[in-house]
């Protein structure tokens, strides 16, 4: 093995949300598998989630280490322990974003204390200040985009054409000039509506940092998004590297099952249940780690799944915050009613393990990019129900470009009824045709 002094050393700083942390830890393993030294910097609560992941990686011979920096919860006015978006009261999001800027000094102290001697910083786009840190310590900074290249290219074209500036309504559909496919969007779906003005300052900081960064890595692959990757690379002078699907670095069942959190269901029990189902018969339902749907909509979803007469696995995260849903599940004896045909998972699910099981044939997804890529990698048909952020853009890629999914029909965050959900469930068998 090469000496530590001669090895490439990457320093990773992931954003504090499940959809950003998990792929960044996968990327750390990929880099280490190619002989690099990798250091990941995060806060104590987030580090605790990944300690067993890192321990397994180290045991397998990979050179990965985890360094903790304190989260400034008190200074930011956030409840103690709320160091991740999935732990955060919704009203505290602005304070949470403010706290990320406060991490700059403790991060830079690691360099001053000579704790770190990296060859390169790979930071999430939500830490735009790392471009200044990189310049200060004379190391290149590479940005990690947790989005699809399709989404990134759409936003690049928006910045060039400014076509949205002539659109007066947030709900009006328009085309983006330069996009290879004829696809229409609204401002809401592209996060450029008036209701997104509170994030305008952060967007501008990210764009400014992007112009000064050395390059970008994206969790995607050429065969999936070829025209968009090609055009985006041209726009960024070629310094764009596609390193996905990062989740495929998880080869062993335990690595697929525990990617940041321990599954809230007994994994052998889950696999035994899936083994009892017919091939490609199960619909897997998971609307992400930060699902913003109210209990009333989730109850309708449960009724739709029950009435569909199809076997399903339904993952409900954050159920402790949804008192009305939990009350309904108990009072209506829902789990007993679906016994044998449905499996309910409260909390974290071993998603990659479930999607790769032969019994799973359909995936109702919120279209977060990690979930989208995991569904694509598993080769399952998808039903799309985007909620926020880049998810509407990813839905366009899945449904309109790749044609590997069927939309539930949500254009903005609107209620959905049992009847129209069931209509889309019936389309599941047609999704590949």
UniProtKB/TrEMBL annotation:
Where, if anywhere, are coiled coils annotated?
Answer: none
Concerning CDD domains, the annotation shows: GT1_Gtf-like
Extract the PROSITE patterns matched here.
Answer: UDPGT
Does the record bear Cell inner membrane in its keywords?
no
Keywords on this record?
Glycosyltransferase, Transferase
Q: Which residues form the signal peptide?
A: none
Gene Ontology MF annotations: UDP-glucosyltransferase activity
Which domain of life does the UniProt lineage start with? Eukaryota
EC numbers listed for it are: 2.4.1.-
Family annotation (InterPro entries): Glyco_transf_N, UDP_glucos_trans, UDP_glycos_trans_CS
Glycosyltransferase N-terminal domain residues: 7-245
One Pfam family matching this protein: UDPGT
Family membership = Belongs to the UDP-glycosyltransferase family.
Could you tell me what this protein is called?
Answer: Glycosyltransferase
> What is the originating organism of this protein?
Citrus sinensis (Sweet orange)
């Amino acid at each position: 093995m090469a000496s530590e002094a001669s090895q490439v050393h990457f320093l990773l700083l992931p954003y504090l949300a499940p959809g950003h942390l998990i792929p960044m830890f996968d990327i750390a393993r990929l880099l280490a598998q190619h002989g690099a030294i990798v250091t990941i910097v995060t806060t104590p609560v987030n580090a605790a989630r990944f300690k067993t992941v890192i321990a397994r990686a180290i045991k397998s011979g990979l050179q990965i280490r985890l360094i903790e920096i304190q989260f400034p919860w008190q200074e930011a006015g956030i409840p103690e322990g709320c160091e991740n978006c999935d732990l955060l009261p919704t009203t505290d999001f602005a304070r949470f974003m403010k706290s990320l800027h406060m991490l700059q000094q403790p991060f830079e102290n690691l360099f001053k204390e000579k704790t770190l001697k990296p060859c390169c910083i790979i930071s999430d786009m939500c830490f735009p200040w790392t471009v200044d840190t990189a310049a200060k310590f004379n190391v290149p900074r590479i940005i990690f985009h947790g989005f699809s290249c399709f989404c990134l290219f759409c936003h690049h074209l928006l910045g060039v054409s400014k076509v949205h500036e002539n659109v007066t309504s947030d709900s009006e559909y328009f085309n983006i000039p330069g996009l290879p496919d004829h696809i229409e969007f609204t401002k809401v779906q592209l996060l450029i509506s008036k209701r997104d003005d509170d994030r305008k300052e952060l967007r501008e900081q990210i764009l400014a940092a992007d112009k000064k960064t050395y390059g970008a890595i994206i969790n995607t692959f050429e065969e999936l998004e070829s025209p968009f990757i090609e055009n985006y690379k041209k726009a960024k002078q070629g310094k764009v590297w596609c390193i996905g699907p990062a989740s495929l670095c998880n080869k062993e069942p335990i690595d697929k099952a525990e990617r940041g959190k321990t599954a809230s269901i007994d994994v052998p029990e889950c696999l035994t249940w899936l083994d009892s189902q017919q091939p490609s018969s199960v619909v897997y339902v998971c609307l992400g780690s930060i699902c913003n749907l109210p209990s009333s909509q989730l109850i309708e979803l449960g009724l739709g799944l029950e009435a569909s007469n199809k076997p399903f696995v339904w993952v409900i995260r954050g159920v402790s915050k949804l008192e009305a849903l939990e009350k309904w599940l108990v009072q209506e004896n829902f789990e007993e009613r679906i016994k044998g045909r449905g499996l309910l998972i409260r909390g974290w699910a071993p998603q990659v393990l479930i999607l790769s099981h032969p019994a799973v044939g359909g995936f109702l997804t919120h279209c977060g990019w990690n979930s989208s890529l995991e569904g694509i990698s598993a080769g399952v048909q998808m039903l799309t129900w985007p909620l926020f952020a880049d998810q509407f853009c990813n839905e366009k890629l899945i449904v309109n470009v790749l044609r590997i999914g069927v939309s539930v029909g949500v254009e903005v965050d609107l209620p959905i009824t049992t009847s129209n959900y069931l209509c889309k469930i019936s389309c599941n068998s047609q999704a590949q045709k």
